[in-house]
Amino acid sequence: MLQAARQTWLRRDPQAQSETVSEVLLGEPLDLLAEQGEWAQVQLIADGYQGWIQSECIQSAVLGDWQTVTALRGHIYQALRWLPRCWVASVKGRG
């Protein structure tokens, strides 16, 4: 299975100036239909849209590496590995 390596735009033709068909989200599953130079024709698994993206935006899916996209559009943030000092102080003060 393949997936989007980053957010990008699905284009009608294999050109950067081509009309936008849809947005491709980070980690979104897709099928590769054809390749032309630095472009790949793909079909999005979630909604069936077809179009062109740059080949560098495609990677092999690694099971367990991504979460399922359940929203049409949303923001993805990396989880904090530490808490800012002001958050810790406000949580301790509530007890």
Structural overview:
With 95 residues, the protein is mainly beta. It has one helix spanning 85-93; strands at 2-4, 8-11, 20-24, 29-36, 39-44, 50-54, 58-60. The protein has a five-stranded antiparallel β-sheet, with no helix packed on it. Strands 2-3 form a two-stranded antiparallel sheet. The radius of gyration is 18 Å and the shape is globular. The mean pLDDT is 80.
State the helix count. Answer: 1
Let me know the largest β-sheet: 5 strands, antiparallel
**Overall form:** globular
Radius of gyration: 18 Å
Q: For the residues shown, what is the average pLDDT?
A: 80
How far apart, in Å, are the first and last alpha carbons? 48 Å
What structural class do the secondary elements suggest?
Answer: mainly beta
Please list the strands of the largest sheet in the order they lie side by side: 6-5-4-1-7
Taken in chain order, the helices and strands follow as EEEEEEEH
User: Using DSSP, what is the number of strands?
Assistant: 7
Helix content: under 10%
Q: Which residues form runs of ≥5 with pLDDT under 50?
A: none
DSSP strand content: 35-45%
